[in-house]
Amino acid sequence: MLVRVYYALTSRKCRRAVLPVYPCRILCLLLACPAVFLAWQLWPAAFPLQDADVREYAGVASRVSQEWRPGSSRARAHHLVESLRSRPQLSKLTSKKEEEISSTTRKIPASSNSAKNLRKLASPGSVAPMAREQQPAPSKPALSAKLHPAHGRLIREYPFQPVRNERGEFVNVILVRSPFRSRHQKELFDQYKQELLFLGISSFEDYPQPPPNPFSGKFPKDEYVGLFPGFLHMLREPAKIFPETVKLVLMSQSDFSLPPPQPKMATKYDFTFSGSDQDVHNDCVGWSSYAKNWTFVKTALEVMCGELGMTGVLVATKDKQGRRACSIPPSCKGKILQTKFLAQNEFFDYVRQSKFLFVPQVHDASPRVTTQALALDVPLLMNWNLIGGWKYLNDKTGEFFHDIGDFRDSVKRLLRKVEEDEYSPRKWVTTNYGDQVSGTRLRQFVEENFADRVKLPEGTRLLFPSGA
């Protein structure tokens, strides 16, 4: 109606007839009409609500009052009305119905905790509050033993190590054996961590802790310890490192793939040491030599060669051409054989011809030569501070030393026990480790802790880390 009046007053015919007589009044009226129309549109009574809507709002009022802490009932009513007005579908609330809702909230006790009383006070007609629509929980896709399509892409990146069963089939478990070496590798993990089971495994330096090796890259100490839902670790006190949410098993790469029994060979050397030829041209100063604890090896050689007159083999302490070698004490001249990097069978032959394997490392997570030597029935002389591999040593497998202070005594004790045939390394290691024992443990660990994350191929009995 106001619109029709406005257009009538502004028509050409009306302006010609009235404007010359009452110009000021007509101009004021023309300016006032839009303002009146706008106020009418915004006033709540312009679009009165139906009774059904009021009952619905009363139910909302009862729920809002239930969430309020004890306070002013007037303030609660005002808060309710303002929240209803802010919704597009509830923007036109009549003043009369506003009073009804306000009085309803005043009747509701501030500390009421009875759902029955709230329903009774919700509306004059005792209509139950409007139930919130329940959103169905997203259903997880059914687990499948079929290999994930991204599996091959992942295992091409170094940190991601595949897992096989006893039939050689890949499974949807990926072991992360080192820190990520690029942003791309971290992005791959983030992309597929909900679709594949990623587990950490100690197989590289001090990982998952930052390495002290000055030639290694560094990362925050908490970056990897809680990143995976489970971890195959080698620590003496894992509870000090990992959060409680991470499932743990004391297991290393060196627990698997033991060499088969081999015939005894005549003893030719007192010991064998497995080194690395990566730093030969820098006189064995570098990343690999630090990991092998070469500085301690040279100190120990002074004792073994100079004081005790022992003989030994230092494997992979010459370059691949066999021309240049890492320097050793002069007292070892004629007593120590230095070789270039050897094939595994050649290395095994030197171990079998020795009384013990010398393991001086500290920052080595999974020294495979330890279990290989034990499987060849050769005991170990091991650094007690070794972070991985300590679990293989006991009174049946060899002797510990802590530093150069007790090194001499440990060497003498080991040599005496070797002469008296007190060790039984092969029997012990094959009873406690190897593919059958460790493969069963890994399969049980996965099934008992991650049955909701991965499905193994039918009939799987054993699981093995695949590759070095």
From TrEMBL:
<feature type="transmembrane region" description="Helical">
    <location>
        <begin position="21"/>
        <end position="43"/>
    </location>
</feature>
<keyword id="KW-1133">Transmembrane helix</keyword>
<feature type="compositionally biased region" description="Polar residues">
    <location>
        <begin position="102"/>
        <end position="116"/>
    </location>
</feature>
<keyword id="KW-0812">Transmembrane</keyword>
<feature type="region of interest" description="Disordered">
    <location>
        <begin position="90"/>
        <end position="144"/>
    </location>
</feature>
<protein>
    <submittedName>
        <fullName>Uncharacterized protein</fullName>
    </submittedName>
</protein>
<keyword id="KW-0472">Membrane</keyword>
